[in-house]
UniProtKB/TrEMBL annotation, chains A, B:
CDD domains: YtcJ_like. Residues 553-573 are annotated as: Disordered. The keyword Magnesium does not apply. It comes from Novosphingobium olei. Residues 72-548 form the Amidohydrolase domain. This is Amidohydrolase family protein. Residues 1-21 form the signal peptide.
Length: 573, 573
């Protein structure tokens, strides 16, 4: 646990009589996922001084008051375990909140207006950085161009990431600053959109994005600290008490540690290093220990098998239905993938691989199958997104599940956002294997849910609603898309709690309300076990508690610099 | 303080009555440097549970026994504050100790025995690296062979450099790893020793050595962890309880943090990043906080103004006396130096610059003088080595000392090792400004002492002896070289304790025996305030204590994995 927190505890221990001062939490309607995956009701809890759950009581059971010195009155509200997002990008979420957001734009014109307004608001910024555009949503039928950006921002470089992070849109100043010209070659795994005359048109896809991205001045350490604080504030407002950071650089890790050292890490981060070199530098001979009272750990490594469906970077077994001349492409060949996975596995790092297309997922499952012969034991191989898997490959997934264990790390909201695009990309025959939550769970895989923020909002309530309904925020399509893949409420809640913890080797530390686990819990205004999907989407998080300390209170939304040492419940609250 | 250490404290607090359990240390003859730089005698100390000094008593004063539950009997021995080395290279010191030294071997059989013993001692070293063999001294009449090495180390690569560095001896595993085969061609200026059948026999001469040398893998994280543990073991045996690491890479820092996270950091490390990029990556927006109960901090940055005297890289105002065609050269021009120092100073990183020659030191003093106009306050600009400074520049040093503060970070043993070489390089007229400890202290500069290990042994006793005598280990020259620059015993002891702490902004945390400071102290067999320089050189360190915990005991030299949590004094000891 963090020094300052322990110090608090120590002083309590030293000057208080009796030595321990437990906390009773009662008068709430609580749910938790049990070790068996079913949902159980909880009526009261006793927490110890160190922020750990000592006892959990069913409704009607009488809690022991022995050693209890503090009381938290649930005021009859709904209480749940703190929610966990199994796949997002922590600093990017913070930076996204600090940069131009185009995710709500409905047309190219709308986007251009927002961009010019943002540029006017920030005359001091050398580069205009933004993200979230989606030409599909704009019904543009093509990529936007540099010329269109030049009309509104001719003087400064502009660099705008697509909603899925798999393409970037530059103006001429940015292309110039990056030295991208007609003669520029796209690197393997990427492409440069060109106009009729062969000039770069403005958009660069997948690996080619780096041609411009590397010309963007890197954020300073102060920028990173601000982004982390911003991201944590966003997470706790949604009721997230833990997240998996999918692709941590050494700079990201140093930012996490600065926050931990300053006792300002109040959302738990399970980190996956961006590639094997970062993994070796961050973790050294193996995964890090759990640091700062289980608030940070390097679990393993994040690798990329292929790209995304929207930008047609996802690697398919058969051509794209809406672009028959391409099947997308792998980011790594089979040998490279095997070597990287094996380098990680030999030192017991957990391996998490991004795979979207059915060819990407099939190849990855083959690689995992092979490696499982060498690297035995509890491995929990993670497939990030697992978006389109050929049903013919499901049995193999089941075989691995029964062996080293496999995690399907999926994002329910991607299904609702991608639906129309996915139908266009895949055509009708491949949809059975797309976003197939229930079927993948059926193979025996662990189903962990997340948001992929900042690609989507890190909103677990939208995710829970989508998971049980497969309807979007407008209730479309009624009854749900490919409804046979809906999951029940217990599975959905487990995907955001116990299973997301298991996916990060954290099930003995947090993710459920059970003795010995960290006291991470939330009070909300809606009962997710009985409310309609639409109501669940509107859930308001009233309080968020991490390690027995309150880090968010809707009644005091502007509380600053919340840290674990400032969060001991005060007597009689 | 580290979680585990605090936990110990917490439990003591929780279960013991009364809450605190102080430790009385008495029955010793103790010395400490006072805040005023004079040496005071100490007769007893009381430490608290957290390893901090609560009270210090003069000889004859009666210590208060209130709250005391443990006792450490000094048995009449000499007690000193833990010594501090203000300039060394932590991991290089460890790696040097992990390199097999064959220079004393008298026969091939003797060498083979030493090699196999070394291999057995270091099962986790991927490669066995050594140096110093000489087949002439062995009267072998031929080069040794790979086959002979294979007999004792068949499983791992072995690479051993000849005493003169002009040949290398490999085993078959090393030749295989390097891809050296019968068909390998020796590069120009090199040759490959071959057997009758034309196979590489094991020895590669001159330029050919690189064929194997380049195959030696860079140190792994495990190698670094081992090097750190080895270095710490060496330091505590010499009575060093804190060191300044002059030039930490991010890999070094990660190694320090791994040790801290595992509660295996028991020598305090004041880290100076190797250059500005490493500084920004390690420290972020500024110096790190003190971590792990004051066991680790990134203080600032290490820069290089020039090279060394021996290789004539040191930058002199006038030509070298023994090579009039050169004056050496700067590593940075004045603009580069100013920019780097300014980048560090603007974020309050401490700046430590290597400067050896009088031109290098003069230029550096000029740069500091300029920067002091912009970056005010307590800066403690550090000059590392400050070996040859033109007396004409001494007043400027005094001006800076009175302003932002300046540290002359010097290595007494360099003077005794370099004496003959320095006279040749500098000629008679420049010696007055060479290794001028007393004069530089006279300007008002803070005089901090170190070893520059592994360049010299990290032996503070040799340093103390040299500092007060300017005689080498053979007592030469009698009366001392440039004896006017000897320092008194108080100044020498301060240079290895209070001033070395001040040089690292640590004077309020450790470096003296005083209330509120960490209880870092040593028991030794020799009284440095009365013994002769020769006797001081032979000082045996009997026990080393860091933060109130014993980390080294000459009576139990093989104690393994000493950590702060294992070092609480047991009752009645």
């Amino acid at each position: 646990m963090t020094s300052r927190f322990l110090l608090t505890t120590l002083l309590a221990g030293a000057f208080a009589t009796p030595a321990h001062a437990d906390v009773l939490v009662d008068n709430f309607k609580g749910y938790t996922v049990g070790a068996d995956g079913t949902v159980a009701q909880v009526g009261a809890m006793v927490l110890d001084d160190a922020g750990t759950i000592k006892a959990v009581y069913a409704p009607g059971q009488k809690p022991s008051k022995k050693g209890v010195r503090f009381h938290i009155d649930g005021k009859g509200r709904i209480l749940l375990p703190g929610l966990i997002d199994a796949h997002l990008h922590v600093l990017s979420t913070g930076f996204a909140a600090l940069t131009l957001d185009l995710s709500e734009t409905t047309s190219l014109a709308d986007a251009l207006n927002k961009i010019s307004a943002f540029a006017a608001e920030h005359p001091d910024r050398a580069w205009i950085i933004g993200r979230g555009w989606n030409q599909e949503k704009w019904k543009l039928g093509r990529f936007p161009t540099a010329a269109e950006l030049d009309m509104i921002v001719p003087d400064r470089p502009v660099w705008l990431e697509r909603v899925d992070g798999h393409a970037g849109w530059a103006n001429t100043a940015a292309l110039k600053a990056a030295g991208v010209t007609s003669s520029s070659q796209a690197p393997a795994g990427g492409s440069i959109d060109k106009d009729a005359s062969g000039k770069p048109a403005g958009v660069l896809v997948d690996a080619a994005q780096d041609l411009v991205a590397k010309a963007v001045p890197p954020p300073s350490a102060r920028d990173r600290d601000l982004a982390l604080a911003t991201a944590q504030r966003i997470f706790i407002r949604y009721g997230l008490t833990a997240v998996a950071d999918m692709g941590s650089t050494i700079e990201d890790w140093q930012t996490f540690r600065r926050a931990g050292d300053a006792n300002k890490l109040y959302v738990r981060i399970m980190s996956y290093a961006m590639g094997v070199d970062a993994m070796k530098l961050i973790g050294g001979p193996g995964p890090s220990p759990w640091l700062y009272a289980d608030r940070l750990r390097l679990n393993g490594v994040k690798l990329y098998m292929d790209g995304a469906l929207g930008s047609r970077g996802a690697w398919l077994k058969a051509p794209y239905a809406d672009k028959p001349d391409t099947r997308g492409l792998p980011q790594l060949n089979q040998t490279q993938l095997g070597n990287l996975m094996s380098r990680a596995a030999m030192d017991n790092f957990q391996v998490a691989v991004h795979a979207i297309g059915d060819a990407g997922n099939g190849t990855l499952l083959g690689a995992i199958d092979d490696l499982s012969q060498t690297y035995k034991g509890d491995r929990r191989w993670r497939i990030e997104h697992a978006q389109v898997i050929d049903p013919a490959d499901w049995p193999r997934m089941g075989r691995i599940a029964a062996n080293g264990g496999i995690v399907a790390s999926m994002q329910p909201v991607h299904q609702t956002s991608d639906r129309v695009m996915a139908e266009a990309r895949l055509g009708p025959d491949r949809l059975r294997g797309a976003y197939a939550w229930k079927s993948l769970k059926g193979t025996g895989a662990t189903l962990a849910f997340g948001s992929d923020a900042p690609v989507e909002k890190p909103d677990p309530w939208a995710g829970l609603a989508a998971a049980i309904s497969r309807e979007d925020e407008n209730g479309l399509p009624p009854g749900g898309w490919q409804p046979q893949e809906k999951v029940d409420r217990a599975t959905a809640l487990a995907g955001y709690t116990s299973q997301a913890a298991y996916a990060g080797f954290a099930e003995s530390r947090f993710g459920r309300l059970a003795p010995g686990l960290r006291a991470d819990f939330i009070f909300v205004d809606t009962d997710p076990m009985s409310a309609s999907p639409a109501e669940i989407r509107k859930t308001k998080v009233l309080e968020t508690w991490v390690g027995g300390g309150k880090v968010w209170d809707a009644a005091d939304p502007d509380a600053k610099g919340i840290t674990s040492s400032e969060t001991k419940p005060s007597k009689g609250r």
